[in-house]
Design brief:
The chain is an alpha/beta fold and 107 residues long. The chain has one domain (3-103): Rossmann fold. The chain is 43% helix and 13% strand. It has helices at residues 14-27, 51-63, 77-89, 98-103; strands spanning 3-7, 33-35, 67-70, 93-94. The protein has a 4-stranded parallel beta sheet, with helices on one face. Helix 3 links the parallel strand 3 and strand 4. The longest helix is centred in the first third of the chain and has 14 residues, at 14-27. The termini are close together.
Length: 107
């Protein structure tokens, strides 16, 4: 099964953003293994006080994924950094039509 890093907004309306990410992971759990640090990093890292540490943990996780899926149309600063690094790591970035492309990858 393909492991997919979820690149999505976190800051701003955190509660709404986290719920959206959680719902996306739940809906797609049979198509891929979603990796969404936004759902668990706050349990041991304060994003406000340790943003660089949180980003480092997220980047390490992303580097172990088969693909990155982008949620939403607006790219935040943090998402932009993640997407640039995905390009450096040569990790496919999936947007529209990602389900079809994912089906052609390893299962």
């Amino acid at each position: 099964m393909t492991v997919v890093y979820v690149c999505a907004p976190y800051s701003g309306d955190v509660e709404r953003n986290v719920e959206r990410i959680r719902r996306w992971c739940h809906l797609n759990r049979k198509l891929c293994v979603p990796v969404a640090p936004q759902l668990f990093l706050d349990r041991y890292i304060s994003e406000e006080e340790e943003r660089l540490v949180a980003m480092m943990h997220s980047i390490v996780l992303m580097g172990r994924c088969d693909a990155v899926v982008v949620l939403g149309r607006k790219i935040t600063e943090g998402m932009g950094m993640e997407l640039e690094l995905a390009k450096v790591f040569k990790i496919p970035i999936l947007r529209r039509g990602w389900r079809e492309r994912l089906g052609r990858r390893k299962s």
